[in-house]
From TrEMBL:
Keyword flag Metal-binding: yes
Cofactor note: Binds 1 zinc ion per subunit.
GO cellular component: cytosol
Lineage: Bacteria, Pseudomonadati, Pseudomonadota, Alphaproteobacteria, Hyphomicrobiales
Highest taxon, organism lineage: Bacteria
Gene3D superfamilies per UniProt: 3.30.1490.190, Winged helix-like DNA-binding domain superfamily/Winged helix DNA-binding domain
Cofactor needs: Zn(2+)
Family: Belongs to the Fur family.
Residue ranges crossing the lipid bilayer per the database entry: none
Pfam families in the record: FUR
Binding site residues for Zn(2+): C98, C101, C138, C141
Protein name in UniProt: Fur family transcriptional regulator
């Protein structure tokens, strides 16, 4: 059974009480975004808040990723707010990235996680985290392409 989280529609609430001002602003920018953002896009959005250096954004992102509130999409070198704070297991997360509109759907599949950690164990590989990125077309863009 897989658990789907659409980055466009679900707004779960993370506990933001322990965040610094910068972390809060960076998380807010990601939460409001329609898709993944790069650190430089976040910096541009937060200039009005007094952000000047990419390092301010990177430091906040690093902490937010560590806390499981933000995920880094390796292939895009961009970040998204985690849409399922209740999910304890961030060891294996998958993202479906639409190559047309840029939407990102986050999901976790326990079976896939088990198979991958089983393989790692069998190979004597110490697994720290697994990020699976699927590239293709979301259902909206697929339907639009089919209609043309």
């Amino acid at each position: 059974m897989s658990d789907h989280h659409d980055h466009h529609h679900h707004h779960h609430h993370h506990d933001r009480s322990g965040l610094t001002r910068n972390q809060n602003l960076v998380f807010g920018a990601l939460e409001e975004a329609q898709g993944p953002l790069t650190a430089y896009t976040i910096l541009d959005k937060l200039r009005v808040e007094g952000f000047r250096a990419p390092l301010q954004v990177y430091r906040a992102l690093e902490k937010l990723v560590e806390m499981g509130m933000v995920h880094r999409l390796e292939s895009l070198n961009a970040f998204v707010a985690c849409r399922h704070p209740s999910c304890e297991d961030h060891a294996s997360t998958a993202f479906a990235i639409c190559e047309t509109c840029g939407s990102v759907t986050e999901f976790a599949d326990e079976e896939v996680s088990k198979r991958l950690s089983g393989w790692a164990k069998g190979e004597g590989f110490v697994l720290h985290k697994t990020v699976i990125e699927l590239r293709g077309l979301c259902c909206t863009c697929k339907d639009a392409a089919a209609a043309q």
